[in-house]
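Lecture 7 notes: from sequence to structure.
We start with the chain below.
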Amino acid sequence: MENKLGRFIREKRGNESLRDLAKRCGVSHTLIDTLEKGYDPRTHKPARPTVDSLKKISLGLGVHVLELLLLAIEEEYPEYSSIYMRRENSPNLWHEDPELLQIARKLKKLSPQKRKALEILTETDESPDEIKK
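Predicted structure tokens for the same chain:
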């Protein structure tokens, strides 16, 4: 199995040591080593990072966590991830509905608190005025 996540992390790490990157990310150097190799050298089991560890590594590397998640998913479920990774197979929603692109751009700029509020509002049938009452 190809280790795209490990290769990506290794390339982003560059000349930085495993320990320095691990310290910057707030994870162990053995985790970074395991992910780069694609397996745990002690047990020889495949690397299976948690979302929490990928979040920490993404912050340390300065990349979006979704980038790491997609690489990890592609490792585990290549038959599903390839559908999402290839643009030619995904519908081009921006051409069909340009308003979606505007909404997506606005959502990216919202604070976590506002995103949560929006999530709550979209899950209810009540209008914002009715919620205040």
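Points to note: Residues 126 and 132 are 10 Å apart (CA to CA). The mean pLDDT is 78.
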